[in-house]
Specification:
Keywords: Repeat. It is built from 24 helices and no strands. α5 packs antiparallel against α6, α6 packs parallel to α8 and α17 packs parallel to α19.
Length: 423
Amino acid sequence: MYGKCGKSWNAQKVFDETPHRNVMTWNSLISGYLQAGSPLRATRLFLDMLKVGGRNRTADDVQLFGGVGAWFGLENGGFARESWRVFNQMRDRNVVTWTSMVTGCAQSGQADEAMTLVKEMLLLGLKPNYVTYNSLLSSFASMDFWDCCRQIHCRIVKEGFDSHVYIVVTLLTVYSESNSSSEDFRALCSCASVWDQISWNAAGVAVDFFSFASILRAAGTLSALVEGKKIHALIFLSGHASNLCVQNGLVSMYGRCGAIHDAKWVFTLMKEHDVVSWNSLLSGYAHHGFGKETVELFEQMRRTEVKPDNTIFLIVLTACSHVGLLDKGLEYFNLMRNDDLPEPPKVEHYATIVDLFGRAGNLHKVEAFFNTMPIEPGASVYKALLSACLVHGNRELALRSATKLQQLCQMILQLTYCYQMCC
């Protein structure tokens, strides 16, 4: 009780006065320190528990705490070295403790270390469970680990975890985020057992709204409209159709797949809209060339209580640029600078205005706007300016822009090299 209320000193006093302590007593105190933001103190207590456990505790008690309590707090607190030190001092480790370390590595972006841990588990004769594989898969979010992802997927199928709901969701997400082909996504979705598992999990694990949002994001990334509609049907069956996060995912999925009318239909049926809702619909319209409709939709948004963010302004400014709405683009840019927004325009917004002037052929205004920028122009701004010069044949300004861009790129390369040398 004291630990949950943030009264670590009181919790420690009660603990010190407790004559007989079990694993739950230790767990409560250490969890209290973790919640209070004192992971080093929690680590020292855990090491003390290990020493006591060597004489008075069973190995199962120690492993239970290691898996359930300490590891997530230590890893999330940024004390990876302490986590490894505690892990290496444990004499008896089971699947739970190994899985906890795999999860910690995955959450901190250490995919290689997570893979090494799983390999060591297998060498020791320990069989990873679905949580182990799920954590490992979640760290494979780029093409650099594509081969590893394939290997683990094959092992998952071999061990019978391929229809587990959390494994399916993670596989779908990883395949989409690593720029996999849509065939891989559809191969996963084509199995009837997968849909049965997502719909009515035989193990009693209900699919939550976050799982549906993840699958929808994967379907949208790969433009898998048929599979996305199947997921939509399952959402109705599961009772999550009214969840705002899921509804936003549906709007985004349909928008990314080019099914703009479906995206607008879902959006219209929503009882409430937040900034993500508008972002998802506007992005879908703009991405598929509906520039004027994007502007009209933004005007609708302005009449609501939802405040546009920097991302929405960038979407609308880009749409204005592509359809040649110079005056509207400048109006929105000035609105962005003058409105009560948490962030001022960024370099990408200025680059879009430069592109807007360039497409309209107003190179003299481009240069004037460029020279009055309150922030340092980035590569995207120089590229937009150079593109406008090349289209309209302004050789002098093009040469100046190209020189600046070259200098900037060389500086970026030098900084990147220095950073790599320092690491």
